[in-house]
Amino acid sequence: MKASRLSFSLGFQHARLLIRGHNTAQLEKTGLKPDDINIVVGTHGHSDHVGNLGLFPDALIVVGCDISQGDLYLPNELADGQPYLIDDHVSIVPTPGHTGRDVSVLVKDTSVGVVLVAGDLFECCDDEDSWRALSENPEVQEINRKVALQTADVIIPGHGPRFKVHRDSTN
Ligand SMILES: [Zn+2]
Prior knowledge:
Layout: E1 6-8, H1 25-29, E2 39-42, E3 60-63, E4 66-69, E5 72-73, E6 84-85, E7 90-94, E8 103-110, E9 113-119, H2 138-151, E10 154-157, E11 163-164
Parallel strand pairs: 1-2, 2-3, 9-10
Antiparallel strand pairs: 3-4, 4-5, 6-7, 7-8, 8-9, 10-11
Bound molecules: zinc ion.
Family: Belongs to the metallo-beta-lactamase superfamily. Glyoxalase II family.
Domain Metallo-beta-lactamase: 4-159
Organism: Alosa alosa (allis shad)
């Protein structure tokens, strides 16, 4: 199987890479060139999460619930709450709340378990006092945060280092 190489929120740091301007040095540090990236995910449309899409003219581009390749918009049911499967291990899942069209990337079977690249569903590990003020729909976001904490072993938030989810096995 050919693994999909994803750039999240134009974005990773391992799974998040920010490309500012047309400086691709941060990408190249990983040994990859823009041509090597076949899927780019902007978890939502805020300008600090999307940019430089033109560096990836042949990639599948996901921005929120919109999925396109070249000039073609691909049908999907993200806005109706359904995941978009990339392969057996990777899927785009709808996680609205912060905006109405937020998505996250769910990666199964990694060496650290299930990883969720969550965009601004989580601002950072300790965002309990801050995320609601940044949310278009805190009620919906709260539900999606709970689901994420039940699903993922590791969460990569929008604005902080990855964190491990500690689940109490008694509840
Ligand atoms: Zn945002």
